[in-house]
Amino acid sequence: MIIVRLLLTTIITISAIYAGVYVWNGIFREPWTRDAHVRADIVEIAAQVSGEITRIAVKNNMTVRRGDLLFTVDETNYTLAHAQATATREEAEARLEIARQVSKRYDELKRRGSVSVADVDVASADLSTKAAEAALKAAQAAESVAEVDLERTAIMAPANGTVSNLAADTGDYATAGTPLLAIVDSDSFRIDAFFLETQLPRIAVGAAARVRFMSSGEVVPGTVAGISAGIAYTEDASTSLLQAPEPSFQWVRLAQRVPVEITLDARPEQVPLINGTTATVILEPAHPDERPLWRRFWDDFGWGTASGEAR
After folding, report:
1. Helix (H), strand (E), coil (C) string for 94-149
2. CATH code of the domain covering residue 291
3. pLDDT digits over 114-139, tens only?
4. What are 230-260's pLDDT values in tens digits?
5. Is 27 domain-assigned?
């Protein structure tokens, strides 16, 4: 009876140790994480010209396509400015034509040998023509600017997505450069997953991924698109471009989390993608570890000669 009890105790102890090692390996070595979030590009929309808002064509949470009208700014002043610029350009064209005719007449008289025309008159006429040409180019540029400003009174969606945080109404004054709404770019959704640095050796660009959304539990396939090249840390606080590391306790080291970008190969069907929501990511290891579980545990903790071979 005692032997049976000792045998059961031994089996239970070994099983508990193996289970602990298995859990440790799964948490700290296998490439998976619950620290992942849905991310998308947020496009802030602001008027490029100032003026009173005369029309708002969208509402909060409304889906828009690239090129759809969002809102319009009063175009009265810009229409007048464009008309004035057009008139200035036409006047410059007329002045240039007059200058060319005068220059041509002086050149003709000089060619015929007329004593009433001096070289200085011919040079002056040529310079007047060049000045008129420059004035015409400036007028054409001013007209183009006025035309662009007039076109900018209609603000269009720069990307496909969903309108968010609309903070304007008809009659409000839009100041150029001040955001009035945001568009969540629906074509830019991806997953930002944060993996422990100890998991990076088994993560590679192009590796297959499974993404489980916390909101619905739905799983969709993905692909590793890239691994961040750097993260911020507290010791990197020097103002002289030199690092100033603070002393740390040598026996306790916390693994840093490194962002890994995951592209979605499919969209979830049960819930829409929402920027900032939580997900779990499981990756296919880039380099499967064929060592037995006990050997991995032994090598990772640097016990015996096995660690020297593994490292």
Report:
1. HHHHHHHHHHHHHHHHHHHCCCCCCHHHHHHHHHHHHHHHHHHHHHHHHHHHHHHH
2. 2.40.30.170
3. 655 566 666 787 888 899 999 999 99
4. 887 766 666 666 666 666 656 666 778 899 9
5. no
